[in-house]
Specification:
Belongs to the glycosyl hydrolase 17 family. It catalyses: Hydrolysis of (1->3)-beta-D-glucosidic linkages in (1->3)-beta-D-glucans. Its EC number is 3.2.1.39. This is glucan endo-1,3-beta-D-glucosidase. By secondary structure, the protein is an alpha/beta fold. The chain has one domain: Glycosidases (TIM Barrel). The chain is globular. The chain is built from 10 helices and 15 strands. A 9-stranded parallel sheet has the order 4-5-6-7-10-11-12-3-15. A 4-stranded mixed sheet has the order 1-2-14-13, with no helix packed on it.
């Protein structure tokens, strides 16, 4: 499931003008406050649907929003071609059904030569996920094949001179025996013989441990016991606790230097009657609060000085995904390009003119008024110290006081 936000460190002039009659919001920015890369939050671009926009249209959407990182669940040639020369970091995926074949170094080499090498560097492929949630697949053979497949893919990258541009890993979920309190985080005992070689590989190749983390499921299963504010990231929050539990579990096995990144997180806007909490209001709150925390470049309590990399799930609602209704309703956008709900995605282009008009649907079916975003000419330079003071002080407070975001970066599945 996946978009990413980066707010620049220099803000000299910024304000919102609300017109109560036309409900048009005009946002002005100083160019020097926004660096060339804006977004920390990544987005998962899933394609399990039969009514999605073309890859070319998705490329235009992402570039208009200045999303700089995204993740896909295959190596769709149409997507790889469409994303050429965009500067978007792209994570591609070896599907679970192909992991066994990747154990053969020759097959792995052929896979990289077919799915990565022809598109690189025009298409900025920076990561390869070998499988997805393999360790919770209930397939012992698939689980035991994973590390040999990782080794073969990495060796193929080395052979082709691509290893310095790509990290190789896999996304994980529900792999812990204990997760609360986070300091007691530990892996399931039966997984030790699988996890240790995996961590050895990550440490040797300096690749991240990816996790798919969904506070939503904890709330859905125990709404009477789990605070909604806690899972919606309003206060000290469950997402960071989940990440820190994995950090402790990894350190407990002797690999504390491995970075943990969130490959998926999100909240469904709609669900079945028994899916408590799957509402537009909660989805908007979760993703909005996640974006605010990304703006602040937050780390977790265990690693406060290391910004947590997060990929949001998902860019689009996917109508062909199996399972409960919620599985088809994690998207920020409908397939026709309208927002499912508005978290303030602002498209800021390099031109000085109005850059994006978008609409979002309220829960009551009404259409929200359109948002226009403009940019001011360059502002005078300020010192780096002043620039930092502005960001950590009034700038952040001003952003949090508005319901509309100012800049962001989102990653989709």
């Amino acid at each position: 499931m996946a978009v990413s936000i980066l707010l620049g460190s220099r803000i000299v002039s910024m304000f919102l003008l609300f017109n109560l009659f036309s409900s048009v919001v005009v946002v002005f920015f100083c160019r020097v406050w926004l660096p060339s890369t804006w977004f920390f939050l990544g987005s998962n671009y899933g394609q399990v649907a039969n009514n999605l926009p073309s890859p070319e249209q998705v490329r235009l959407l992402l570039t208009s929003l200045r999303i700089t990182k995204t993740r896909i669940y295959d190596t769709n040639p149409g997507v790889l071609t469409a994303f050429a020369n965009t500067g978007i970091d792209l994570i591609v995926t070896v599907p679970n059904e192909a992991v066994g074949m990747m154990m053969d170094p020759r097959q792995a080499l052929q896979w990289v030569m077919t799915n990565v090498q022809p598109y690189f560097p025009a298409t900025k492929i920076t990561g390869i996920s070998v499988g997805n949630e393999v360790y919770t697949s209930d397939d012992p053979t698939l689980m035991s094949n994973l590390v040999p497949a990782l080794l073969s893919i990495h060796s193929a990258l080395v052979q082709l001179g691509l290893d310095s541009y790509n990290h190789v890993s896999t996304a994980n979920s529900a792999v812990l025996e204990n997760s609360y309190p986070p300091s007691m985080g530990s892996f399931k005992p039966e997984m030790a013989n699988l996890v240790v070689p995996f961590l050895q590989f990550l440490a040797a190749t300096k690749s991240p441990f990816w996790i798919n983390a969904y506070p939503y499921f904890a709330y859905k299963d125990s709404p009477a016991k789990v605070s909604l504010d806690y899972v919606l990231l309003r206060y000290d929050n469950m997402l960071y606790a989940q990440v820190d539990a994995v950090i402790f579990a990894i350190a407990r096995l002797g690999y504390g230097g491995v970075e943990v990144r969130v490959s998926e997180t999100g909240w469904p806007s709609k669900g079945d009657p028994n899916e408590v909490g799957a509402t537009v209001e909660n989805a908007r709150a979760y993703n909005r609060n996640l974006l605010l925390r990304q703006i602040r470049s937050e780390g977790t309590p265990v690693r406060p000085n290391q910004r947590l990399e997060v990929y949001l799930f998902a860019l689009f609602n996917e109508d062909m995904k199996p399972g409960p209704t919620s599985e088809r309703n994690y998207g920020l956008y409908q397939p026709d390009g309208t927002m499912v709900y508005n978290v303030g995605l602002a498209a800021l282009t390099s031109s000085a003119s109005v850059s994006l008009t978008s609409s979002a649907t309220r829960e009551n079916g009404e259409t929200m008024n359109r948002i226009h975003v403009m940019r001011l000419p360059p502002c005078p330079n300020t010192t780096k110290k002043k620039q930092q003071r502005q960001y950590t002080g009034g700038g952040t407070k001003a952003i949090e006081s508005f319901a509309t975001w100012i800049a962001l970066r989102v990653i989709i599945r």
